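G., before I forget:
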Amino acid sequence: MRETTLVRRNALRNPVRMLLMVGCIAVAFLIFGVLSAVATAFRLEDQPGGHERMMVVNRNGFQQTLPIAYARDVARQPNVAVSSPVRMALVYWRQPKDIVSAVMVEPETYLDLSKDVVKVADEDRARFVATRDGLLVGRALAERYGWKRGDQVTLQSFTDLREDGSRAWRFTVAGIYTAAQPGGSELAMAGHFAYYNEALLTGRDRINWVLVQGRDLAANDAMARTIDAGYANSAAATRTQSEAALGRAFLSQIGDLMLIVRLIVGAAFVVILCVVGNTLIFMVGERTGEIGVLKTLGFSRLRVARIFAGEVALIAVAGAVAGMSVAALIVSALGTALKDVLPGMTMGASTLAMAAGLVALLILLTGILPVLQAGRVNIVEALGRK
Amino acid sequence: MTGSVKQIAAVARIALLGLPSRARMSSATVLSIALATLVLLGFLAMASGFRATVAGTGSDQSAIILAEGSASEFNSAIDTARLARLDNAPGIAAGKNGPLLSAESFATISAVEDGGGESSVTLRGMGPQGLAVRPLARLAGGRMFTPGRNELVVGSALAGRYRDFKLGGSVRLAGMMWRVVGVFEAGGSAMESEVWADRKLVGQFFGSSAAVQSVRARLSEASALALLQRYLAADTSLKLVARSERAYFAAQARNMGKLILFVGWPLGIAMAVGALAGALNTMFTSVSTRSTEIATLRILGFRGPSIFVSTMAEAVLLVLLGSGLGVALAGLFLQGRSASTIGGNLTQVMFKFDLAANDIVQAVTLALIVGVLGGAVPAWRAARRPLVTAAAE
Amino acid sequence: MNFMQRVPAVDNLIDIVDLSKSYRRGSTEVPIFDKLSLSIERGRFVALMGPSGSGKTTLLNLLAGIDRPNSGMLAVDGERIDGYSESGLTQWRANTLGFIFQFYNLMPMLTAAQNVELPLLLHRMSAKERRRRVDTALDVVGLADRARHRPRELSGGQQQRVAIARALVADPKLILADEPTGDLDRPSANAVLEILRLLADELGKTIVMVTHDPVAARAADLTLHLEKGRFVNEAVAA
């Protein structure tokens, strides 16, 4: 037998109460785990390279466009290593409900800039670059629609009209890409900007953003200021930001997502603090006599406190592990179900680290009073020896 | 019968009188129920408020015409060359200067809020009849924009929240100064989160003049929608579809409201399960601290059912207190609170939290379920416990 | 009484000189002892009797180091404990003392063997050595076959014997017992007394036992009568 035996036996002596406490803690961690995974998926900053890659967008938002000429101007900035213009295209295949997210790009520079997000085999890359009406398609998307390399597909655009008045665009599937990171989206596609642009009636020679990789990361901010200053008084003023900052700014408009998450997680933790804290205090009260016996046997205040702290920790860790495990299951199920809407939903290391921190905090906050109380038990009073 | 009612009342009274002595455990339960109720109500009120705002944007006196296959303005485009063919469409009300039609396109603009932050709002370009095709909207101050001039009319929700959109002020957009010449109201609907300007200017400076996204039409009467729909369906080269504004916005509201509820209910239920664990714990503790009292009562001749009911009464009282507190907190801090989120156009929509009676009923019901579940097991145990064990403890 | 023959030289385990103790109850000071003195020789089995409020429980508390005197000297085996801090006393109890309670006070979630082993957690000792000692202690009290039982599976007398094994296992110099037979029927009480007698006779333990039971007192080498904080059989007290 060890002191831990005592801790374990103590925790298990009222299994119903133990389960209720563990359950209560598990629920709070479940809420935390799922919400953080969702919040992480929402923040693009976790995309590899998201902090280094810059985007030049219209000051009014990425839904608005910039003249293609901006891409050439930006490329001449001294700090720019690689830059690439991107146009969004809202298209569907066969039925309007099968909306596909597509970008029309300058293939070589775009792939150079995206190599830590997407993985493309060399021959696919070469074929995509060389095929004027070529499409580079995400693996999951290609599987969904049964597309193979060499297939001809006709996509319909929602908002872009062709000069001939139609909305139909013929493409050839030139290559398939996979996500460079597990959980990354494979549901998008890229085509050639030049091919798309030449047929446009509306919005010809307009792009949604310019992707930029700086030579010197430290000079990125200065570069952004120079670019934006140059267009400040033109019809399309720009805003140059890192991909991550842009994503955050956009999401902040949904409502302060992180704030809501924090409030809810906070509420859940207040609930367990109350419930578990009180139960533990009650438990110490119930075991006052036993604590008196242990102290009579020569168990020091510290040891008694340690045995109780061990029990609190056991309960908290059991609850956290249970909660995070169920959260992981739910996150993986949600991640599969919402792959199209919200790719990249995984339980990351940062979430786990935060969970560990929360466990520690929980142990401290719920444990401190009962542990102190247990340590302070007076033998004479505890055993009614007066 | 009256005898057992009296018994129950007597035992319940004893149980409830003992509540203060178990104050800490009991208040933990009350608080956890209150927080669970509050979280659920927050989402329900958000969904109700958002739905009311978006759904309130539509009238059945007006129709919205979109490109075939497009579910919303956001992904619709109509070639301007086809617009003239709508002038002779049936079912559209006539105004002084021809049929009440407004071809519209929108753009996103970034605007500075009172607090200094920036966010995206919808700039809607509309024809001269833009106000006339919207039965719900009316000018609350200033005047309508003059076609061809850089003038803006802003929704009252924006005017109240954005530094850039004060009546008489001006704002720089697309490299030019624009004057805010009017403010409109639209019954608190999502329309009030828009900025209006001349469609031709919006097309020229913010997008494309070659296409618009939708056409609004004032119907001669609500039933005239069918005429318009038949006319559009008959001309297959038009590829346009008309819907009543009310139906269009109701559908949009449903989708967004659903998303909020899709998040809110699981969270509310998870919180309730946590609170249930707390309630069970409290009731088990209550029963165990009262075990001598309960045994004494039973030896005195009180029957099991009265013990059961009195313990349940304690649990139900606790959750009612908790959910009452939750509702009160929600009423105090959430009701009427303005919030904004991203709407269908990926721009800001202002709305108010709206605690509907139905939301309160749902949240209190959830709490009561927690109370009944949390009370039943401990109450059952208390009532069934063999006397000898109970008295010995 | 034949202890004189077995203990050739006077060798005190307990020395109490001018010990005073009082409690505050509200605003009044309630004196328990005033300048009490007592010595108990090593290896003796002493019974302490007296009516309620006579101070016998307080005296046992002081001897056990779970309560502290207001003044006076209290030494066990030549070690003065009256000035010890709480943590000093805790340490001292772990090394010197075995305690037997009226209501056994076993840990309900531990087996008999684990209950006996409990004090050994406070000593640096191999698992093997611990098991040997637990086995021996359970053997002494005749419960080797009940090692894996939980307290609620044991009778009162058996529980008290487990408690004795627990008091014995760390090989303490002094064993204190607080009405160890108070909650037991006659046969169980006799078994417990027999074991205590054995501890004194065979293992040379010094035992101080508070009791109300004259039969129990008769098992001891001598009986001290305490009344209103004084010994009434002065002749026996040192």
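Chain C has one domain: 43-66+83-231. Chains C and B do not touch (no CB pair under 8 Å).

More on Monday.
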